[in-house]
Amino acid sequence: MSVKTKLARKAVKTTAKHTAHGAASKATRKPFRSITLLTAGALIGLVVGWLVANSKSTESTSETGAVS
């Protein structure tokens, strides 16, 4: 394994640990805000996922000529 690869992996690992620790710390200090932001993120993710899935299903039916 090259030195570059080792450093890159170490940086990713350290960043992940730092992010997880910060999120846990913030959830302890401001739990309502954390729950609100997580819920908002989940809802936005659901809407975007639904829109992407819905647009792909619409495209596939229009290519085959199927009537919906």
What is the average per-residue confidence, as pLDDT, rounded to a whole number? 85
Uncertain stretches of 5 or more adjacent residues: none
Distance between the termini: 54 Å
Q: Helix proportion of residues, in percent? A: over 70%
Helix count, per DSSP? Answer: 2
Q: What is the H-and-E element order?
A: HH
Count of beta strands: 0
Shape, principal axes of CA atoms: flat
What's the main sheet like?
Answer: none
> Roughly what fraction of the amino acids lie in strands?
under 5%
Secondary structure class reads mainly alpha
Radius of gyration (CA) equals 21 Å
Task: Summarize, please.
This protein is mostly helical and 68 residues long.
SSE inventory with pairings:
Blueprint: H1 3-29, H2 31-64
Helix pairs in contact: 1-2
Structure commentary:
This protein has 68 residues and is mainly α. The protein has a domain at 3-48. The chain is 90% helix and 0% strand. It has 2 helices and no strands. It has helices at residues 3-29, 31-64. It is flat, with a radius of gyration of 21 Å. The model has no long low-confidence stretch (mean pLDDT 85).
Task: Please describe the structure with a list of short key phrases separated by commas or semicolons.
single chain; 68 residues
